[in-house]
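Researcher: Please translate sequence to structure tokens.
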Amino acid sequence: MNTNLAIQAPYTPTRTAYSYTIWQANDPLVHYLSSDLNYVNETTGLHISDDPILQPTPSVTLTLTNVAERYQPWGRAQQMAGLGSPQYDTNRYNLAYRDPLVYGSDNWDFPTNKYPTVGWLGRVHRGTPWQTVYLKSTNLLELNVPGNPSANSTGQNTWNYWTGDFKNFDSLNSRPIQDDLLFDVFTAVPNENATLGTLSVNQMHLAAWSAVLGGMNIIANATPGIPNFSTPPLQTNIIINPVGPSGIGVFTPLGQIINDINNTRTNAIMFPLQAYKRAGDLLRVPSLSVQSPFLNRSDAYHVTYDISDEMYESIPQQIMGLVRPSGPPRFVVYTWGQTLKPAPDGTVLSSTLLPSGYNPFGLVTNYQVTAESATRAVITVIPVITNTPTGPLTNYNLKVDSYNVLPPD
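Model: Translation complete:
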């Protein structure tokens, strides 16, 4: 006999379903979007079971004492290593998508005061795992052998899995190499006049670059560090010596950098016009960062355990506040003038007609200098394009940037 006080009628068949989702952060400082937390190397979602005793559990063991599989700072492969190759780059020491020697969050060295130059943006976390604003030359999408048609695909797949963002439009625009655009919109100078002495990135002469780089105090690796050690590696300070005569200076480390600046500019693949368009284009020069002649990269041990991100970006950090993109043409114009008066006995007082019938009376034939002056003006030529029925018409306006009367001596 049914003694239940409540009976469900009609009978409704049921089935118990269990679902789980794994959320793991790679970099603890990057956990704001769902793509930051997806466990991209494991299938997760709905799992169904009729037996409550055999409830499904994630195949990855997650406890408070285990380090997440997706946690992959410098030297830790884990999740990326499980993706395999050659479709993905699984190098745990690849500085193209993680900062060197940052073994954990305690290794960050973020600035806390006002930035002395715009190059200090390189110390700011960029919002993708284990990376600050990127001032190095290596392009993640060009890591494979040049000419390999799968290079871009490999780099794109690597970056998608590294960030957890599989929308190609979003991930492409978050690539580290895009950070060079920041130097067109950020500055640390107090006013516009402070940029007048900056050097054009398309300057080609040895002496001009020597004036910018010479005397710069940079940091470099001193002796091999200890792998995975919690303190920064030993470092040394190097003063960049200016170049000497052109026949000697080109063989110095600074001369190598200047040659690399000029050679990179002529790379028609990166720069079709063989000229830098933006200040940040200068960051594509390898010898300013990843191939700096001031760093000891003699073997894999030094490269892996001995060179920090700050060392790689020591020169870009200081130089980006000293250069500017090439703007309109500028000209320096020197003028010289005299004030004159008729010299004694320099005026014709005779009214005798010349054979031609001309009367020279009152003609001044000699002058005496009473004053002299010299000026220096810097003029910018600004093109102005006007659309006309017959096509674009280019005119030019002149802007006087500065005008100074030169002293007597």
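Researcher: Any highlights?
Model: The chain has a mean pLDDT of 82.
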